[in-house]
């Protein structure tokens, strides 16, 4: 039997498993609009993978309003955005799993490789339940289990530890620049889904292109480099 050379694969949730990254954007854009701040999809790249409160700070900075509100006012704004985001989540079904993801998960599991999920979202379990994926991952790290948001490596290192995986033999899949930085700071192999993730070890344009044989081939090249 071929020796197993990958311990685990750890997925990001928002923007990789499902397109909830877009719902985050719509909810933030509405809150920003109410504050007189205009944000677009390019700015939104900076919010991906970043915690709720850190995202709010980035938006306030964009409008030069970072010193204009108390902590309690900021908490109220973040809650308002979250209520709006949760309205979108009510419509989420298993049909909203991104193309190629279920096939990829099946192919990884066939080889007996563990899969984990690393999301800084406090809504991660709601999203997983809506997609009927709550029993799919061997371990889920969400906002409740870590202190630091991506790009800090804490979240991916926690996933590796709980999966009993060596980070250097583990693959992370991300759609966010902060997420790729977190994977690389963990010394893992980084797969980036999107067009702006230059630091990824292997890049694809969409989840449809996430083919297990190709990912393994790229990982093998990286490990033997
Ligand atoms: C990340 C998203 O997964 O979760 C970010 O990429 C989001 O856009 C963050 O801000 C926090 O999510 P939530 O659901 O806790 O507000
Ligand atoms: Mg993401």
**Separation, N- and C-terminal Cα atoms:** 24 Å
| Average residue-wise pLDDT | 96
What is the percent of helical residues? 40-55%
Count of distinct strands: 6
Please name the fourth-level CATH homologous superfamily of the largest domain. Answer: HAD superfamily/HAD-like
> What is the correct CATH architecture of the largest domain?
3-Layer(aba) Sandwich
Gross morphology is: globular
Number of folding domains?
Answer: 2
**CATH-defined fold name of the largest domain:** Rossmann fold
Strand order of the largest sheet: 3-2-1-4-5-6
Low-confidence stretches: none
Bound molecules: 6-O-phosphono-beta-D-glucopyranose, magnesium ion
Order of helices and strands: EHHHHHEHEHEHEEH
- The first-level CATH class name of the largest domain: Alpha Beta
Strand content: 5-15%
- Helix count equals 9
Alpha-carbon Rg, integer: 18 Å
Going by helix content, strand content and strand pairing, the class is alpha/beta
Q: Sheet with the most strands?
A: 6 strands, parallel
GO biological process, one term: carbohydrate metabolic process
Site (Important for catalytic activity and assists the phosphoryl transfer reaction to Asp8 by balancing charge and orienting the reacting groups): 119, 150
Organism: Peribacillus simplex
Binding site for Mg(2+): 12, 14, 174-175
């Amino acid at each position: 039997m071929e020796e197993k050379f990958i311990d685990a694969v750890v997925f990001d949730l928002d923007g990789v498993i499902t397109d909830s990254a877009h719902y985050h954007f719509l909810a933030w854009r509405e809150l920003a609009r109410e504050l007189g701040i205009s944000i677009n999809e390019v700015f939104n790249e900076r919010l991906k993978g970043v915690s709720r409160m850190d995202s709010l700070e980035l938006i306030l900075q964009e409008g030069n309003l970072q010193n204009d509100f108390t902590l309690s006012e900021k908490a109220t704004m973040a809650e308002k955005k979250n209520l709006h985001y949760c309205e979108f989540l009510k419509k989420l079904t298993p049909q909203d799993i991104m193309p190629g993801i279920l096939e990829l998960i099946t192919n990884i599991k066939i080889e007996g490789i563990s899969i984990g999920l690393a999301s800084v979202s406090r809504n991660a379990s709601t999203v997983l339940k809506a997609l009927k994926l709550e029993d799919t991952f061997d371990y889920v790290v969400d906002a409740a289990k870590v202190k630091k948001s991506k790009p800090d490596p804490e979240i991916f290192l926690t996933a590796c530890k709980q999966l009993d995986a060596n980070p250097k033999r583990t693959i992370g899949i991300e759609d966010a620049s902060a997420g790729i930085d977190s994977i690389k700071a963990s010394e893992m192999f980084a797969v980036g889904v999107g067009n702006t993730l230059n630091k990824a070890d292997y890049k694809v344009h969409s989840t449809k292109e996430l083919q297990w044989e190709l990912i393994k081939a790229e990982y093998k090249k990286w490990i033997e480099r």
